[in-house]
Design goal:
Length: about 270
């Protein structure tokens, strides 16, 4: 089998069970340590203000960056207004969707997607997809952290931008598996590390820093075979001095595992 019994570490949260099974199916020995959880922002007055402005025709474009964020925003807004209000308002603006997940959610709602953003679905593809369009007032559904580069680039295109933050990431309540992952890294018990979002590395380093082990964890990661899901994660890994050994042909979890297994074996 491709991984050949290699010890494979993943920090996947939402799909942790699926990730472990994929690693096993590809001949690896998995250890999955969730590095983050998505936390909805309670009492999100910013979201309600955004909804009022959207219904009042303050925007002519809405950019959705994640499917999870779209659903959470819809759920929050439905606590104060009929569910149809948000979706009806979206039908009156140009809707941009970054990749298949928000597209699937919007299709389910019956909201047309005027601008589907192609792979690898980074902010750069969003920017290229809307380049040349005439819409000037843009709303952006953020995810986990501020979309600084995208917002700056949209403004440089001559647009005004308003962001609506739906959820944040934080460390999971149970950090036991994360502590075990650090221990395994530091003792040479990991051969391959898979990253499916840059936030996983960010939280791993934050956790290690709190234990005075950040530098040691970075050094340990440099001794492993690192696989990154796509350009956004790769850029952050490189910023931390951890250039990955590979990216999959498409930013999909199954392809990441399968192609990382083949690439790891070929590298031995």
């Amino acid at each position: 089998m491709p991984f050949g019994g290699a010890r494979v570490l993943s920090f996947e949260s939402r799909r942790a069970t699926e990730m472990a099974e994929l690693i096993r199916l590809n001949g690896g020995v998995p250890f999955v340590a969730p590095a983050l959880i998505e936390v909805p922002i309670e009492d999100n007055e910013q979201a309600f203000e955004f909804a009022d402005r959207l219904s009042g025709a303050a925007f002519d474009m809405m950019i959705f960056l994640t499917g999870v964020g779209a659903r959470l925003l819809d759920r929050v807004l439905a606590t104060r207004a009929p569910e149809t209000r948000f979706r009806d308002a979206l039908r009156r603006v140009t809707v941009v969707a970054r990749g298949p997940k928000p597209i699937a959610v919007l299709r389910e709602w019956g909201v047309p997607v005027a601008v589907p953003v192609p792979e690898p679905n980074t902010w750069r593809e969003v920017l290229v997809a809307v380049e040349g369009r005439t819409e000037k007032s843009v709303a952006v559904q953020e995810y986990g952290r501020p979309s600084t580069e995208l917002v700056a680039a949209l403004i440089a295109q001559g647009r005004t931008v308003s962001c609506v933050e739906v959820y944040r990431w934080k460390l999971p309540a149970d950090t036991g598996p994360l502590a075990e992952s650090v221990a395994r890294l530091l003792t040479g018990g990991v051969d391959v590390v898979l990253f499916t979002t840059s936030a996983q590395l960010e939280h791993l380093l934050q956790f290690a820093d709190g234990r005075g082990q950040r530098e040691a964890v970075v050094k340990a990661l440099r001794r492993t075979f690192i696989a990154s899901i796509g350009p956004t994660s790769t850029a952050f890994l490189k910023e931390e001095g951890l250039p990955p050994a590979m990216e999959p042909s498409h930013p999909k979890m199954g392809l990441l595992v399968r192609e990382a297994a083949s690439a790891f074996t070929a590298s031995r």
